[in-house]
Design a protein that fits this description.
Nucleoside Triphosphate Pyrophosphohydrolase; 16% helix; hydrolase; alpha+beta; guanosine-3',5'-bis(diphosphate) 3'-diphosphatase activity; 9 strands; 30% strand; RNA pyrophosphohydrolase
Amino acid sequence: MDVLRKKPGKGYRPCVGIALFGPDGRVFLGKRASRGVVPKFSWQMPQGGIDDGEKALDAAHRELYEETSIRSVSFLGEVEGWLHYDLPKDLAVWRGRYRGQAQRWFAFRFDGSEKEINVTEPPDGHQMEFCRWKWEDLYTTPEVVVPFKRPVYEHVVTAFAPYAQPQQGDIAV
């Protein structure tokens, strides 16, 4: 299967993925709060479904806020097209309604204070997706996500590599 397609494949849930870059060029990762995830592969970037009639960019802002409480971002770029992954057959997610996800990926720069980030008490009564978070080198993200998402993350790493740099004027730590 080609990971990148011009439009969502039949049987794939339309979603967004968000690469949030900190001022030092590292990317936000959340540790999944759900049970049954192998700890080594329990990290991921924010992601979520696109509601009916919702624009993908609007969904990216909404999902980022619902999962992290973050609103202070600026748009950097996006992957042209949809990145696909199949769910393993042994996962009983969506009760057979979808075979996987088709994601539009967006890159944002975090412009706020880390005090804004709250993954354990999501806003507006949303369910907690992450139990912890950290800033991570973009290039290592495929190593810490569940194996079936790795091809998508490898594509994201290549597409968003130019943003994995400290902001101009910042000093790398």
